Amino acid sequence: MEFSVYDPGEIDEIRDLFIRTFTDSESEAEGTMVGNLAYELMNTTDNNDLFVFVARDHHQHHGAQIAGCIIFSRLTFDSGIDAFLLSPVAVSSDYQGKGTGQALINFGLSILKDNGTQLVFTYGDPNYYSRTGFAPVSEAVIRAPLPLSHPEGWLGQALISKTIEPMNGKPQCVEAMNKPEIW
Ligand SMILES: CC(C)(COP(=O)(O)OP(=O)(O)OC[C@H]1O[C@@H](n2cnc3c(N)ncnc32)[C@H](O)[C@@H]1OP(=O)(O)O)[C@@H](O)C(=O)NCCC(=O)NCCS
């Protein structure tokens, strides 16, 4: 697998990857929802507030298909700390269970760290995301930007310091993530 920053010319292919992957794993409605979320994130978010990374199968010679994609968007805290939110994440069904998801997340985290990002959060399965350094975060320590339907899925990690220090106030997510139904 080859990991890289996305090219804006790949937005449609990336949307299709999210639609396909979440349709296979959840439902057609979920596929459409996550595909539209990814599309809107890539089309409406300022460049400074977005990182998109893709995994390509380099054994496939004809236009190496995108096998996985992860999107990070900025979380803005009053304190000014540099923070990002990882969501959504997809590895195409035919490539799942081979370490691609974890390797792609680690690739993204190392680039964010080099870029000075201090905190990264995500909202998902603690058992999966703990494999790449995420741990549950209490909302008494760091609040989520919107009300959570699964508070146990609020996860985070510090990339530079050793621990996440408590912060007052609620961070703000980018416009595309600012939808109650995805939290
Ligand atoms: C979740 C997902 C990104 C994982 O990517 P992947 O490349 O298949 O994962 P990896 O190969 O890096 O890791 C596989 C391991 O994680 C485990 N795993 C995979 N999905 C998991 C999940 N949702 N919860 C807990 N563990 C999970 C596997 O059992 C496997 O464990 P093993 O190594 O002990 O066999 C991918 O399966 C996917 O896109 N699924 C559908 C969409 C989705 O759920 N996205 C994440 C939510 S935003």
Broad structural category: alpha+beta
Using only C-alpha atoms, the radius of gyration works out to 16 Å
Integer average pLDDT: 96
What summary fits the major beta sheet?
8 strands, mixed
Can you count the beta strands? Answer: 8
Beta fraction: 25-35%
- Please name the fourth-level CATH homologous superfamily: Gcn5-related N-acetyltransferase (GNAT)
**Which residue ranges are poorly predicted, with pLDDT under 50 across at least 5 consecutive positions?**
none
Describe the structure in brief.
By secondary structure, this protein is an alpha+beta fold.
Question: If you had to describe this structure to a student in words, what would you say it looks like?
Answer:
- This protein has helices at 11-25, 28-44, 100-114, 126-129, and strands spanning 2-5, 50-56, 66-76, 82-91, 119-123, 135-136, 154-158, 172-173.
- The protein has a single domain (2-182), classed as 3-Layer(aba) Sandwich (Aminopeptidase), CATH 3.40.630.
- 28% of the residues lie in helices and 25% in strands.
- The chain is globular and about 50 Å long.
- It is built from four helices and eight strands.
- With 183 residues, it is α+β, with helices and mostly antiparallel strands.
- The mean pLDDT is 96.
- Helix 1 packs antiparallel against helix 2 (28-44).
- Strands 1, 2, 3, 4, 5, 6, 7 and 8 form an eight-stranded mixed sheet that branches.
- The relative contact order is 0.16.
- The site of coenzyme A has 19 residues, from helix 1, strand 4, helix 3 and helix 4.
